[in-house]
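[INFO] parsing input record for Putative nuclease HARBI1
[DEBUG] input buffer:
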Amino acid sequence: MDINMTDFMDLEDLDMLDTTRRPDRHRHRVNPFELSDEDFRYKYRFSKRFGEKIVGIIREDLVHDPRGCPLSPEIQVVCALRNWARHEIQDDTADLHGVSQPVVSRTCKKVAEILSRKSREFIKMPTTLNEQQETIRKFRSIANFPTVIGAIDCTHIRVKKLNADGGQLYINRKGFSSINVQVVCDADLKIMDIVTRWRGSVHDSRIFRECRLKQRFEAGAFSGILLGDSGYPCTPYLFTPLLNPTTPQEERYNRSHIRTRNTVERCFGLWKQRFRCLLRGMFGDIETAKKTIVACAVLHNMAIDMREDVFSGERDSIEQYSSEPLVQRYIAPSIRGNIRRRQFIETHFQ
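[DEBUG] output buffer:
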């Protein structure tokens, strides 16, 4: 068999061409914290001070991989922050930071895992009497509704469609796959309790019925009450609006209830405005999505504590991405809840 030597030359030429492409463009990395405050905020939608705070909290947990070219804690944090806050294509985040897309994916997963493990430090109900009284005072200042310790509601976070067995259980009543996330917030819009383990087809009332927070209220752990919409049953510790108010007192109760409970809707709006991944959906695996939701709740609370302004660019309509209808399916109150609410109205809304 005759072999043409030019074939070898052509193959060598191709190898040389390949070699010219191999220098790793992903190795050129700069410290993002060397950017100006304005440039950092434009790229990551948060201040440098906020980014540095996150790095300080999780630095020890971001163990360097000794192989190859390890990422610094600073690069890992800003990759996750940009991906969650801007919800851009991971390839774009990778190009910006001199890494590959799989590295960005693994980094976001790692940072979400670490932050979700630390969630109890940042997401917690008021426990001491002084903390509870301060929470009640702030809620009362909104619309003079007394003894409120939290506003509760659920929101759907879109996830990728699952084709495995049970995947249809993630499809909510609006027809897309989601995780139904229960949140309790305070008057400052901070998240005090979060439940992320339920599929989109599960109703809000069931999530509360089976959560640990309900058990704590029934055990008398809190001196105040929760406010919820008509998608929850009225109980002695969770008040809902009246379906058909007939007296001036009942109308005053409903008006005050609606204005006070609206804090949880505002909390959802602010939370999703800060983290576009919550608005537009998460398309990794379900367990990572759940941890990312909790991680974003941790960062949301940190941002409120640090008085971070919401980034003004690239505004989306919050209503456009709202997953909850304005009218919830009505759940009849319990007998004890009805009696307790009636007594409450007679005492406080005369």
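[INFO] Confidence is low (pLDDT under 50) at residues 5-26, 314-327.
[INFO] shutting down worker
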